[in-house]
Design goal:
alpha+beta; 8-stranded mixed sheet; 10 helices
């Protein structure tokens, strides 16, 4: 790839993802459902505007943005089903999936990214395995999908793959430069992912509720308004790290401190679907509800604090 990453063109070429939904939030008697791959496109839009006088833009930017756009590509097929939570009798929220399915689906998506671009593939592979390793130190505790042995097997296999890919990538540069840039971009990918998840599922209304880190709030489909934070965000390669604070100042408007974007305001949004919040007798009944669901826009406007 060459030149700046065109988010609109990429999302337009990759819009044939079905109508399935994996991110879920409960609101006013409805379940709001958002495709994982659409959330990823929002992350890519955030990535494309990352960088200003305080925050260094990712380098190489096109490959980092490609990783953001494709980091959930393994979910295309289950998005189009969607998967069903038998216990709760509703569509399955993305953090409710079992370990065996998570490894199979995410692994398939990582293979697709490697085929598109090896550098972007490394970033998405690091993102995937980082979900089993506390985002490689960025968050406290790991995401619990069950079956830690299966997690360990997946991580080991991916780490072995990194060796050969990195060997090819360092032919024309120092290994230390590659590693520093790669891990910097990995941390940025986590930040873009969490910002997009926040915009998709958190309640962006002013409230004096508890201050919590974004990833602490994602497992539940019920969200309490309040200030959210993202820790350990790098400002430059090898530079200091900061905690980003997200404060809703009015409905749908979120002050970001410190502010990391190259525009004074950044509006992001996706199309979601709303279905009644009730128990569904079967997966097929839930799928029919999704097929006839009401559409609405979900997102927010990020502004300087």
């Amino acid at each position: 790839m060459a030149g700046p990453f065109d988010v609109e063109s990429w999302c337009g070429r990759n819009a044939e993802n079905g109508e399935g939904f994996m991110l879920i939030k409960r609101r006013n008697g409805e379940l709001i459902l958002i495709e994982q791959v659409v959330h990823a496109h929002m992350a890519a839009e955030i990535a494309a505007h990352w960088g200003n006088e305080q925050f260094a833009a990712p380098r190489p930017q096109d490959k980092a943005c490609l990783a953001a756009a494709m980091h959930d590509d393994g979910w295309r097929e289950p998005d189009s089903i969607p998967l069903f939570n038998e216990k709760e009798a509703r569509p399955l929220h993305f953090l409710e999936i079992g370990m065996e399915d998570h490894v199979k689906l995410y692994g398939r998506g990582v293979d697709e990214v490697f085929a598109a671009d090896p550098y972007a593939g490394l970033l998405v592979s690091m993102h995937w395995t980082g979900l089993y390793r506390s985002r490689w130190g960025m968050q406290a505790g790991r995401v619990e999908f069950g079956d830690n042995v299966r997690q360990d097997e997946a991580v080991l296999a991916e780490e072995q793959r990194w060796i050969d890919v990195k060997r090819e990538l360092v032919r024309d540069q120092r290994r230390s430069d590659l590693e520093l840039s790669l891990w910097h971009n990995y941390d940025l990918l986590q930040t873009w992912d969490l910002l997009s998840l926040y915009a998709c599922v958190c309640d962006t209304v002013p409230d004096d509720g508890p201050v919590r880190q974004v990833f602490e709030t994602l497992k539940s489909i019920d969200h309490v308004p309040g200030v959210r934070t993202i820790p350990s965000v790098p400002v430059s390669i090898g530079g200091e790290r900061v905690e980003i604070t997200l404060t809703a100042v009015e409905r749908g408007v979120v002050a970001v401190d410190p502010y990391p974007f190259d525009v004074d305001e950044l509006t992001v949004g996706v199309t979601a679907k709303a279905i009644p919040d009730r128990r569904y007798d079967s997966a097929e009944e839930a799928r029919q509800a999704v097929a006839s669901a009401r559409e609405e826009k979900v997102g927010c406007r990020f502004v300087r604090s």
